[in-house]
Amino acid sequence: MKQNNTPLLQVKDLRVEYLTAGDPFAAVQDVSFDILQNEVLGLAGESGCGKSTIAYALMRLHKPPALIRSGDIRFEGRSILTFDAERLRAWRWSEVSMVFQSAMNSLNPVMSILGQFSDMLKAHGKISRDEIIARTAEMLKMVGIPAERMHAYPHQLSGGMRQRVALALALTLRPKLIVMDEPTTALDVVVQREILQEVLRLREELGFSVLFITHDLALMAQISDRIGIMKGGEIVEIGTTEQIVTNPQQDYTRALWSAMPVLEQPKEAGANVR
Amino acid sequence: MLDDHVDILRLEKITKTFHIKPVFGPAKTVEALRNVNLSLKPGKALALVGESGSGKSTVGRMIVQHYEATSGRILFEGSDIADIADRASQMKYRQAVQMVFQDPFSSLNPAHTIRHHLQRALRLHQPDHSGDADVCRILDEVGLDPKTTPDKYPHELSGGQRQRVNFARALAVNARLIVADEPTSMLDVSIRKSVLALMQRLKAERGLSILYITHDIATAEYLAEDTAVMFRGQVVEQGPTSDVVGAPKHSYTQLLRAAVPDPRQRLLAGDSGFSSHAKDVREASAHLVTGMIEQAPGHFTAQQ
């Protein structure tokens, strides 16, 4: 994989706090990390460790009572914390996009798939109806959905298909970074594998970086180049996938590994599938 | 009373057809289950594995009488549950068979304390044992703090703790069979194993039988002696877990097995064969099962 060493995104000493009736609660405590060009960075940790808060803060989608207290987020060297509303709106989706945790439910139920593409494309520049249709068809085909399904409504698609639509939407404007917050949690393993395979294929084809957030370490190890382990709002360990899998340094990382059931025997019977 | 040869639960040629009449569009029928045979021995666990829509939850719901079978029989300790006529035996059946649902966030009443949830079950089925001491004993058994938990509301507990309360509720009525419908799939991976360990312990110590419904074949290996794999409403492979999960013979089970995330195996962009292979296997596995072939003692695969 071609990988450039200049970071696409730099997060430095990021601190996100939730205002409460008492003292503010720091969900993300002075976290720093980089995402390189064309890299898949995984962020793992149990519920409530702050990984989704980071995802939202990166796109400045966090809403009060959450606020970025200190630190900086730089995208290609520009600090996104200084963007005004208009610039932010243009920047989101065209340079950084997001596949949400419940991507299945992030589609508008009363709008056809074409309508959702049309909305997004129109918001990012002048485009004719024919072009919208052509673009939608192209993107749907790219994620393996027949183009004629663009007139379907979300409830007429299966969970896996909706997830693919969400992915297609996120890829349409060729962003440089896609934030995926537990994109496959609600799917069964076969569909999950198909979608991740798709993401990797598209990355090869289009070239983009991914911030992949999940609590499933095994899944993360399969697709990430580097993995960060989070606990209580801090990154306790960050390293290459190889190192996190074979030689974790922190007790917490080891505890996370031992907390999940993994198939014991070597896969003999399944080997012919690959 | 019960000798070991009698299955606690037995499904014989179960078929379930749903007739759907949508507001718009034509009515249609869905064959949710086609000729399903399953059996579960006392004190053992049977894992029912399959993707969403394979009919595995329908099986669970039929056992707790949410649905009636279109045809076939469900035998509990040897007697057909469709024959239960009077209220007393109905009550007895409901006491013996309890269900734990997938979503720990919606299966407890948010307006009541944990004490209320457990005492309600106790009063209904064991009026003599509904005191605070009994609530504490049951909470202790599922690994929750008996001192602080009774006065808590569901929102004060984590998902894993709430799932433990659901198991406590099933224990409170002295259930002998628990139908656990994806009890761990909405929980964090990091606490999944502890809930599985709880089920393992209940099975070993209390002799509970468990029908464990899941889409995660890795957890089946951890808990169940026997495994049945379902696809499109039919059982395609069943037998001892060590055979079915360890050395699957049916192509769908092999696919399921290969798709389980393995940290030692990197996914590669060029590996596009998986999707097309998955499609082929799905198509082949959807055909009507014409018979079962015995691969090894007790290990059957479907002939299609």
UniProtKB/TrEMBL annotation, chain A:
PROSITE patterns attached to this UniProt entry: ABC_TRANSPORTER_1, ABC_TRANSPORTER_2
Superkingdom of origin: Bacteria
Record's keyword terms, sorted: ATP-binding, Cell inner membrane, Cell membrane, Membrane, Nucleotide-binding, Translocase, Transport
PANTHER family in the record: ATPASE AAA-TYPE CORE DOMAIN-CONTAINING PROTEIN (PTHR43297:SF14), OLIGOPEPTIDE TRANSPORT ATP-BINDING PROTEIN APPD (PTHR43297)
Pfam families, alphabetized: ABC_tran, oligo_HPY
UniProt cross-references to Gene3D superfamilies, sorted A to Z: P-loop containing nucleotide triphosphate hydrolases
GO MF: ATP binding
CDD domains, A to Z: ABC_NikE_OppD_transporters
Membrane topology: Peripheral membrane protein
Name of the protein in question: ABC transporter ATP-binding protein
Protein family: Belongs to the ABC transporter superfamily.
Domain ABC transporter: start-end pairs: 9-257
TrEMBL record, chain B:
UniProt keyword ATP-binding present: yes
InterPro entries the record matches: AAA+_ATPase, ABC_transp_ATP-bind, ABC_transporter-like_ATP-bd, ABC_transporter-like_CS, P-loop_NTPase
Source organism per UniProt: Parasedimentitalea maritima
PROSITE patterns in the record: ABC_TRANSPORTER_1, ABC_TRANSPORTER_2
GO molecular function term, any single one: ATP binding
Domain ABC transporter: from-to ranges: 9-257
Chain coiled-coil ranges: none
Name of this protein: ABC transporter ATP-binding protein
SMART domains: AAA
Lineage: Bacteria, Pseudomonadati, Pseudomonadota, Alphaproteobacteria, Rhodobacterales
Keywords carried by this UniProt record: ATP-binding, Nucleotide-binding, Transport
